[in-house]
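Entry type: protein chain
Record version: 2
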Amino acid sequence: MAAQDDKTANRAHTRKAHSVLVTGATGFLGRHVLQAIRALEPDTHICALVRNPAEWHAMAWTAALGPVDLIQGGVTGDDAWLRDPRLNGLGGILHLAAVVRHSRRNPQDIYETNIQGLLRMVRLASKHTCRIVVASTSGTVACFNRPDKFALEDAPYVDQTVRNWPYYDSKIQAEKQARMLAAELGVTLTVVRPPVLLGPGDHKFRSSGHVIKHLRRQFPFLIHGGMHFVDVRDVAAALVRALRHPAARPVYHLGGTATSIEEFFRMLQDVSGVPAPTRVVPQSVAWALAAAAEETCARLPTHPKSPFPDPVVIEMAGHWWDIRSRYAEDELGYASRPPYQTLADTVTWLRENHPALNA
């Protein structure tokens, strides 16, 4: 009888160790994290939090994942899904869900999702006595006025620099509040900070929006500033390894390629054959054009989309972004693949899948 009890306990422990909830499962990063779980841990039981199961089933890539338990719900709003019995024995949470929008217009959902959504997941981790790994952003600590600076894992938050940019401001507040709540509840919390994500498979065409605009020759000009990008496939694998690391650190940085905006578009030109914009205008001029266009579009009855980026994007573009890590390579097996490979794979996938590029 005792031997049978031991076998039952071992089975329960194995299921708990290999059961994971993924939020933001239908997004660009979510897609690659799910694929990384299947590649690194084929036997893992996956629960994917999705608002619309029909959307999940409509995406061709989901079928190749094999069995996935769909938990219908969101990180904010109705919380009935938190009591779903399929979450029993949960061994970890990979929290990827966020509202990524660089604008000061209607910021309420940015703060609600990015802060309260994370706090809900910390409480869920406490309920199931499991760890949580959170995908944050390099912009919480690595936004500078000059190109020779960078941030390591212990860098201070850049609160004052990003205070008027709701997305980054919300992520700083989310990290701070989640850390306090996790300490209070005894939850193991790891924050992973990547820069801009590129690579193949951006099926919602959001993270690669600037690449799409370049391929469609929609950039009238550039401004002086910095760009930092990384391959989503490398980030996804590191997130999964962080969840399973027996002594994961509170923070990991996943750096990629930090360069100037002008050099970034020259690299895109090299891999795509589409010429990079040659006109570079002062940030003040670009901001004035963007702000005037936004105000004009807002006054028109049809509210057309401005031909210029949001003023927040212009403000951000005039800064420099660079994170580096002391630990990710040794502890997570992390390595950022060559930038030209990432950009070439991004361009190839977009040309095969974006409706305006594969006609």
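Comment: The chain has a mean pLDDT of 93.
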